[in-house]
Amino acid sequence: MRTPAETMTAYFDGWRRHDAESLREVLADDVVFDGPMGHVEGVDDNVAALHGLLGIVRDVEIRHVFVDGPDVCTVYDLHTSATDTPLPTVNLAHVVDGRARTIRAIFDPRPLLGT
């Protein structure tokens, strides 16, 4: 079984490969995502949403990873085709039995919205 840090490393590795389907291995069936652009529940809907997001992702540049038991905080720069500069982002995940149960992304969405 993966540690929480290994789970989230595999999660972001899937992003880098543009492989949303591989994320099923690290997301709990009842995973809940919350972020500035929306709320998504369940593994199928999360994978579908990630298919859309990964269409604009160029790179994920990890800056720091903090682990506190089952909780993982990943600070990264999200490089996208929709923005000229990377989006500084914080991802807070709670991992149970090697799978992310909750994920919360925190970033300023204005560059994606054109405002």
TrEMBL record:
Cross-referenced InterPro entries: NTF2-like_dom_sf, SnoaL-like
All residue ranges annotated as the SnoaL-like domain in the record: 9-100
Pfam families for the chain: SnoaL_2
Protein name (database record): SnoaL-like domain-containing protein
Natural source organism: Actinomycetospora chlora
Lineage: Bacteria, Bacillati, Actinomycetota, Actinomycetes, Pseudonocardiales
